[in-house]
Fold these 2 entries.
Entry 1:
Amino acid sequence: MRNLHDYKVAPPDYVTLKGRHGTVEPYVHDLHLQKLWNGLGGMGINPLLLYFVQDDFGGVDDFGRWLKEVKNNGWLTHIFRSNITGEIVGMASFMRADPSNGVVEIGGVAHGAGMKRSPLSTEVHYLLAKHVFEVLGYRRYEWKCDNKNEPSKTTAARYGFSFEGVFRQHMISKQRNRDTAWFSMLDNEWPTLKAAFEDWLSPDNFGAEGRQLRRLEDIRAELSGQSSQKA
């Protein structure tokens, strides 16, 4: 564990991060609203965001008002853009930043059809985590979701977030109780997580049809085993 005697980090800010498959960019309302709405399925956004706490959107204007509201609440929303098509295919936000303790959450995560089950989806989250740990110098990176949201929990675990437990009756969401599942990555875990991400994202890990040869979870388990043996 690092020496925390003089530990100090700045709040996160908007950032542009470019990978081979996709790019993370700051959300700009006048430039991106309609394209983000389209990339998340238009009116199909409501089932996609079933476990978000806000009410269903009646259209793109409602969505835009909500994005402005969460910005006022401290969310730093970023879009995900495909480097191949140039289309906006998803979003996520830095939120609940606690610089004094080196903690920040990635939330408001939504993957449109253009990025699901693709290297792009893994790559953008690798880029965000790398930025949090290596550029910002944070100690803890959080992922939280409705405990009923099995796809989100599966995704968090796949990326290497560790499940920490469930906060019961944590929120009221869409007029019902929400229990919240908490996940995190820590700075001392990042070297192994980073190596697994980079091994998985390597072109050598994909066959002629673009299918993965080794699962991210399997690569991480192998690297974790090697680290334990060295210790």
Entry 2:
Amino acid sequence: MSAEERQRAIVGAARRAGSVEVTHLAEELGVAKETVRRDLRVLEAHGLLRRTHGGAYPVESAGFETTLALRATRHVPEKRRIAAAAAELTGEAETVFIDEGFTPQLIAENLPRDRQLTVVTASLAVAGQLAAVEGFTVLLLGGRVRGGTLATVDHWTARMLAGFVIDLAFIGANGISRTHGLTTPDPAVGEVKRQAVLASRRRVFAGIHTKFGAAGFCRFADIHDLDVIVTSTSLSSAEAHRYSLLGPQVIRV
């Protein structure tokens, strides 16, 4: 097996399982651990994987985006903590935008139920989850439905968003980087997110540590466009401080 074939196999395994370990890869591929570590360094340099102690995990990019079903199986306890902390930021907001994705779906679960709230979303999952909540008005944005994420996109969705002024937006992204801002692989998705940022008075990004430092194809917002970043303690305090210097408050839970 050539180095290229081996590295392709490593990326495939990481995307299927969500992460890979050096020891296991060495056994599976029949090579030395140092060979695997060298492959991981190469793959990280190409932006395909992010190395961890003893292994690596895949980075979503222009050519790779996980489905909603797969996201619901990865880092779930971390996502639940982040979602609960993000939902506490709802405050006195009367209108809220909930982005597509599994973590935003968890935020929707944690929204306060003791008062009236208007929820705007492109996510069919979020709309279905909240439609029966007493006191909630749910506005589902129209458009083309993406099969992998069950969310609406394209000009119909963005045009509808452009007609709103929203108190608070919970924004997701495939990657967040101090250099490249918030990004996503699909231009149609990026346009919806960009319009949500423009339409909202306050903007909260909620995402797990693996999102940080990653960059996709389409940039839809800068770090200074955010008011708050909510993530977990898996993101180092030093790195969190670097993001806070660009404007937003950073909350680690």
